[in-house]
Amino acid sequence: MTLSILITAAASFLMQAPSATTAPGRGGHSYDAVVAIDGTGQYTSLQDAISKAPMRTGRNDPRWVIFVKAGVYRERIYVQRERGNILVLGEDAARTIVTYDLHAGLPGPDGKPIGTFRTPTVQIDGDDMIWENLTIANGAGAPGPRPAGPPVEQAVALRVDGDRVVFRRCRFLGFQDTVLVNRGRHYFVDSYIEGSVDFIFGAATAYFDRCRIHVLRDGYITAASTPEGVNHGLVFREAKITGEPGVKAYLGRPWRNYARTVFLGTEMSAVVQAAGWHNWNKPEAEKTTFYAEFGSRGEGANPKGRVPWAKTLTPEQADALTPSKVLAGADDWNPTSAK
Which residues are catalytic? Predict the structure, then answer.
């Protein structure tokens, strides 16, 4: 499968949203840097533009705005902690694409497999970043954009270790382990995420608002590793879960035994297994995980068929799980007002 075919197929599932304009001043921002693969900007590499951004670590520091013109940027991106407060603004989510193809089985300098955590196409350690209107992809895993070759396993598109990171109208393409929310608090809104096995996973508190979740092959949508004592793990609100024909997937399985995952008001196609949740063959995890739903609808919504250790929230409990409450933390962060 070629990259263009993969991108075109995924684009058909993306929620419609206005594209960025090239005129300065969108959303009250002017552009501090422009990236264009065709050389019409200040940079041809997004990594170069990020590496030249000022080091701003204070929450009240002015945000640095990087506008990325449409094109396929085949590069790995790393955002260090000292370069927070950046807005990366793509021209169009379906045509502004950052992609690479590392996977866990590749040999590193020592000859040993590099492992999952060294595969991300984009890795963010900086706080207070905003990403809008882009595609972030890892093309290594099956089905992938490679013309041939055997399937591979873990291949991360996005890894987030920073705090207070926002993604708006973005697409995340991969197969196994597409999105790793490793640490911090993150807000995804009006975005598209695809994969097959554990393709939204990690220990962070992450909120997915009005996102499209598409399952490529039989597997598991989430694999939270929420630390013990943390109030929230992965929260999905008004999501839409779809899948390829004949595919079946569980809503989640516990990477660690205190995993917390909640689906609120989600439309679930027949791709969702009747049992809903899997214990990862760890019966003891059934006593410590918190897997819950409220207001699920569609063919995959089957409260009577769910595993007995999953929970159904009350309306009052569901109403309390807003982005501002789930992600507030000690600093009262409200991701919906981030600019």
Answer: 177, 198
Phi, psi of 26 (to 5 degrees): -60, 130
Residue type, 251: L
Please compute the mean of the pLDDT values over residues 56-76 and round it to a whole number: 93
- The amino acid that residue 94 corresponds to is A
Beta bridge partners of 207: 187, 235
CA distance 237 to 258: 21
Residues 6+ apart with CB under 8 A from 172: 135, 136, 137, 157, 158, 178, 179, 191, 192, 193, 194
Contact (CB, 8 A) for 263 and 236: yes
Single-letter residue type at 219: G
End-to-end CA distance of the chain: 37
Strands (E), 26-113: 33-35, 64-68, 71-74, 77-79, 86-90, 96-100
Comparing C-alpha atoms, which of 128, 59, 120, 39 is closest to residue 88?
128
Where does the pLDDT of residue 8 fall: very low under 50, low under 70, confident under 90, or very high at 90 and above? very low
Q: How far apart are alpha carbons 254 and 289 in whole angstroms?
A: 7
pTM for this entry: 0.91
Higher model confidence: residue 310 or residue 83? 310
Q: Which of 124, 31, 107 is nearest to 69 (CA)?
A: 31
Peptide bond into 143 cis (omega under 30): yes
Q: How confident is the model at residue 28 (pLDDT cuts 50, 70, 90)?
A: low
d(CA 233, CA 277): 15
Radius of gyration of the chain (CA): 19
Q: CA nearest 233: which of 135, 321, 167? A: 321
pLDDT at 26 over 80: no
Amino acid at position 28, single letter: G
- Alpha-carbon gap, residue 34 to 69, rounded angstroms: 7
Res. 150 pLDDT band, cuts 50 70 90? low
Look up residue 104 and give its DSSP letter. T
